[in-house]
Write a structure and sequence with these properties.
This protein folds into two domains: 23-134; 148-296, 2-Layer Sandwich (60s Ribosomal Protein L30, Chain: A), CATH 3.30.1330.60. The longest helix has 93 residues, at 2-94. It is α+β, with helices and mostly antiparallel strands and 296 residues long. Strand 3, helix 4 (224-241) and strand 4 form a beta-alpha-beta unit. The protein has a five-stranded mixed sheet. It has helices at residues 2-94, 103-147, 184-198, 224-241, 267-273, 284-291; strands spanning 156-161, 164-170, 205-210, 250-256, 275-280. Helix 1 (2-94) packs antiparallel against helix 2 and helix 2 (103-147) packs antiparallel against helix 6 (284-291). The termini are far apart.
Length: 296
């Protein structure tokens, strides 16, 4: 009887400890699953940050290259000025004895001095134009990012490349698949962009439609090129009619499948290529004016 009682107590103890261990094991499994989910979320966030860092680094490199090219131009002009000044130093010494120079030589000296002054003014105008362009682009990008800041990065992307501002909007925010009529959601997105552009009346821009390479034909539309053009014109019309942007400052263009940002080898890449791009053009007339001869 004693042995039987002892065996029952032993079996009861083993059963009790088995239940406790099972509960701890299940809790550990749940904790491990939660940690796995958190790790996946953090890894996704890290990948997004790394992509943004790489894009900013590329834009910084592009701007630095542009600035380096203009600085080289300025340095070359400064060398020309130093050369002219060095040559004129010798000539100006001859002015101490007017009998050794002719009237034509005196006229050449005057023209050289005028040329030096003109080059100095040109350099100052060029530097001012560079500073103004950089500040305008920076202000424009910051305003655009602030206006559409609640949009997800993969759907709206704003960047500056070689003095041109690009706004890429995923087509899923603007159009239904295979359609060129704007959705109600599109008006929300375009309204925010239009509010910024309307405050910059001197800015000119072009709206480009882009597609993937999947063959398309519907009704009067012959192919992706037709579709991209119709989508671009749909955007400029709403910017004009609903938001009052000056049509003389806008242009519509269809690029079809011929200017992809990624290879059309996967569904994800094709989705990236289906986009509407607003290209804000630089004020080239300001630089052309610098090259025109000054009127006297």
């Amino acid at each position: 009887m004693k042995y039987r009682l002892a065996a029952m107590i032993l079996l009861s103890s083993l059963f009790f400890f088995s239940c406790v261990s099972s509960k701890k094991f299940k809790k550990s499994q749940a904790d491990y699953s939660a940690l796995q989910v958190k790790h996946t979320e953090l890894q996704t966030t890290l990948n997004t940050c790394n992509d943004e860092k790489a894009e900013l680094a590329r834009q910084k490199t592009s701007l630095e290259n542009d600035k380096a090219g203009l600085n080289d131009r300025i340095a070359d002009l400064n060398k020309q000025i130093d050369f002219l000044k060095a040559n004129n130093t010798t000539v100006l010494k001859q002015l101490q004895d007017l009998s050794v120079i002719s009237s034509s030589q005196a006229e050449n000296i005057k023209k050289s001095l005028d040329n030096i002054g003109a080059k100095d003014a040109y350099i100052q105008d060029l530097q001012a134009a560079m500073a103004r362009k950089d500040s305008l682009n920076l202000a424009l990008v910051m305003n655009l990012k602030g206006a559409v800041g609640n949009m997800e990065d993969q759907d709206i992307n704003i960047k500056v490349d070689k003095g041109v501002v690009y706004i890429d909007i995923s087509d899923k925010l603007l159009f239904k698949s295979g359609k060129y009529e704007l959705t109600s959601q599109a008006k929300t997105v375009l309204g925010k962009v239009a509010a910024v552009l309307k405050n910059q009346p001197d800015i000119e821009f072009m709206v480009e439609g882009h597609t993937d390479n999947v063959a398309y034909r519907s009704g009067v539309l012959l192919d992706n090129w037709d579709l991209s053009v119709k989508r671009a014109t749909s955007v400029v019309r709403i910017l004009q009619k609903d938001y009052g942007l000056d049509p003389k400052k806008m242009a519509a263009s269809g690029r079809g499948e011929y200017n992809p940002v990624a290879e059309n080898t996967s569904a994800e890449n094709r989705s990236i290529n289906r986009r509407t791009r607003i290209v804000i053009l630089p004020q080239l007339d300001q630089f052309f004016q610098l090259l025109e001869p000054k009127k006297t």
